[in-house]
Write a structure and sequence with these properties.
- The protein is of the alpha/beta class.
- The chain has one domain: SGNH hydrolase (Rossmann fold), CATH 3.40.50.1110.
- The chain has six helices and ten strands.
- The strands form three sheets. It has a five-stranded parallel sheet with strand order 3-2-4-7-8, sandwiched between helices. Strands 1-9-10 form a three-stranded mixed sheet, with no helix packed on it. It has a two-stranded antiparallel sheet with strand order 5-6.
- Strand 9 and strand 10 form a beta hairpin.
- Helix 1 packs parallel to helix 2.
Length: 288
């Protein structure tokens, strides 16, 4: 029995996308190196998405006489977040008032030793952008040990790991909120590996509790891309085209272009709810 994905009014195309898939090797604590094939697929996919995305640094039109309200979304994260950026680019490729900027990085991670410097660089980049919403997705590389500023190490699942990880999450969120940016954080999906899925569930639980305390929107994805038993599901049936579509890559972690469009559509719904909560007049005028 296959999980069926309903047709999405947010703009997910029912037409086939190029077979080139977006992906990035997930680096677990055991340090698996990305294959040359994965890197090649990733480069081709990002180039394709970039060709369709709005030019960076161009102000998004407000809608003018049409009364349409656009939005500028910054996507922040690791290789999973990078895929979500491409999903937004594809979803909004014919909507110039809906702008998405790439602040994700393949190989990034909340547990990496260079994360503090990465966060400083991100803060500097955001200072030069006019951003309405930040969509974050991390976790492809995070199920490994973490070190603090004094080089003290903490193993995954330990209390020290939890506290340091959440302190990094809070620092990211507070910097964005201080800029008056609406924050939407995407949870991790089910993985092919039971071990990775278990770790993803644990991280999701930590994130959901912390983000709730910070007043930030958390979007769970664990059940959305699972089969009826909650297991890994590489294909779904698209209601618009009435055919099976691949949503996950063979690495059991990342998504295809179509899968990332589905995630972007869910994030778009969360963005609209968050913006309407701040300004109810946007409910009938949101152009994205």
């Amino acid at each position: 029995m296959q999980y069926r994905v309903p047709s999405l009014a947010a703009g997910v195309s029912s037409a086939s996308h190029p077979s080139t898939k977006h992906g990035g090797a997930a680096r677990r604590g055991r340090g698996r190196l990305p294959s040359l094939i994965s890197i090649a697929l990733l480069s081709a996919a990002l180039l394709l998405a970039a060709l369709w995305s709005p030019a960076r640094g161009v102000a998004a039109p407000s809608g003018g006489e049409r009364g349409i309200h656009g939005v500028t979304v910054a996507v922040i994260g690791d290789s999973l977040g990078d895929g979500v950026w491409s999903g937004f680019s594809l979803m909004w490729r014919n909507k110039p008032e809906c702008r998405v900027v790439r602040r994700s990085k393949v190989g990034a991670g909340m547990t990496r030793s260079d994360f503090p410097q990465w966060q400083q660089d991100l803060s500097a980049e955001l200072a030069g952008e006019s951003v309405d919403v930040a969509v974050l997705m991390f976790g492809a590389n995070d199920q490994q040990g973490i070190r603090d500023g004094l080089h003290h190490g903490y193993l995954f699942h330990t209390e020290g790991w939890k506290q340091l990880y959440l302190s990094r999450v809070e620092a990211l969120v507070r910097d964005l909120v201080a800029r008056k940016v609406t924050v939407v954080w995407l949870g991790l999906p089910v993985m092919r590996s039971d071990e990775l899925t278990s770790g993803a569930r644990w991280i999701n639980g930590l994130l959901e509790e912390k983000l709730k305390s910070l007043g930030v929107v958390f979007v769970p994805l664990m059940q959305d891309f699972a089969d009826p038993t909650g297991g890994f599901q590489p294909y779904v049936q698209d209601e618009a085209s009435k055919r099976s579509r691949q949503i996950r890559l063979e690495d059991g972690i990342h998504f295809t272009h179509y899968g990332y469009e589905l995630i972007a559509a869910k994030a778009r719904e969360a963005i609209l709810r968050a913006l309407v909560a701040r300004d109810p007049t946007l409910k009938d005028a949101f152009g994205c």
